[in-house]
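anyone seen this seq b4? input:
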Amino acid sequence: MTLLTQSGMNELGRNKSPQNTVAVDEEGSHHGKDTNIMKHNGGDSNTRDNNTLDINTGEEDKEPSLKPFYIITICYLLFTITDGAIRMIILLFAYSQSFSAMEVAVTFTLYELAGVFTNLGAGVAGARWGIKPTLITGLSLQLFSYGLLFAWNEEWERTQAIVYVTFASMFGGIAKDLTKLGGKTVTKLVTKEGQKTRLFKLVSLLTGMKNSLKGVGYFLGSALIQVNYYLALGVMMSMIVAALPFAIFGLERNLGTAKKSNANFKEIFKLDNRNLNYLSLARLFLFASRDFWFEVPLPFYLRSPRCDELGVGWTCSNTDVCTPGAECKGSLCVNQNVGGGCGGLGFSRILVGAILGAYIILYGQVQSWTPQLVTGPLNQTPPNKLTEVLWGTVNVVPTLVLAIALYVAPSFTEYERDGMIAWIITIVVLFAVIFAVNSSIHSYLVVKYAKREKVAVSVGFYYMSNAAGRLLGTLGSGVLYSYVGADEGVYQGTDGRLGLAACMLAGTLSSVIAAGITTRIDDQGAGLICGRKVIIKEELEW
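predicted toks r here
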């Protein structure tokens, strides 16, 4: 504990207001010198003199129970598998129905848009009624969303199918953000005030595990739909059913509720938390930097066939003699999905799902171990705004490099398949690692900046911006991938190489904006260190 000087004690004694009674607690920070001074409630005047300095209380020392963390983690992780799977099931089934990239992006519009509004409502609901009701509602809506997808009919007109799938996926979007609220807020609630390193590790562990299992969901969804569409839906629904009893019987109803006053929508739009506001806006562009190319353009490009071995002059007797990703139709090799573009690698559904799943698993594992393997060795744990500015700037590099390569590298312009694969895999792996570090730091900073008694509202506002970024990236990617590339013909479609390059450039610009916004956050007191080198000195308080 920190000792106060005699003059400080005298000054404290002259002030008779109970609100000026303080507890002083010292916790190691970036350099082991962070001192936190927390205001203590005045309490009952019959039991505490207003002039008394409250150095310690037994309640403050009591370690919060980890039971809610374990229960919510089980529910959250089972749900996460189904969340990853639902995107791949919709995307790959839509691709087989010749949906364009723009049309698939539209089907995810309400999924992402629902997240914007759900995060607002979930933050208020969580703070007012607790995490338990929001978690149960989220799991139930995911079950409902999968149930609706059972009715998707291959014989429907395109417009009818798009409208129906968009509506069905909307409930999945609501479910995701209701369920996410519990996973993101429980870490703050089971961590004592001031334990920044423990909080960072808990947040990183949970977000990392979540994204690893989401990657499993991507792979399972793509593998199961290769067998049967309805089998894929049924397996995922069984996982939701398995998670529900944990949420219903294992949690206290008031977990996560606001302690001082009921939360309402005015609390969300009370923009008095400057750091959280800037972090939320930066989060929007950070996630747009990924979703401008990852969710729709990349799988479409991986599935699409090369452009110059389709149409007139490329006759066939069966699909096996056509270039990968093409089919034999009317004695000609043609694109399986003209709306999906050409110029890609022609990978199978399972392989596409495996690549996207591996990306997310790697991303999740790096998130889990960011404190131990990245920020810890670099002396950047716990991180601050300067740490995120550094890693946010590094996030620019992979997408910029691949955008340039798609435009000018011989591997792409001359269609050297092995070289194309090497480029894409290398960049995707590099981006996964860097983006995971950024996401881990962001996930820590939001709970750090959130007011403890309003943590659900604060996290809800923050992840509203997260959903808005995904929406921006998803819709923008559909437009860019579908319309930037030149039309190669009726049997080929548009040039997916140029479409993907444009999406990578959009992702690069988003990363630049995110890093720039982060510089506006007021959290640089601990400075910035990279290993043994001091980049920005710690600001000393007098």
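Confidence is low (pLDDT under 50) at residues 1-60. The CA atoms of residues 18 and 42 lie 4 Å apart. kinda curious what u guys think
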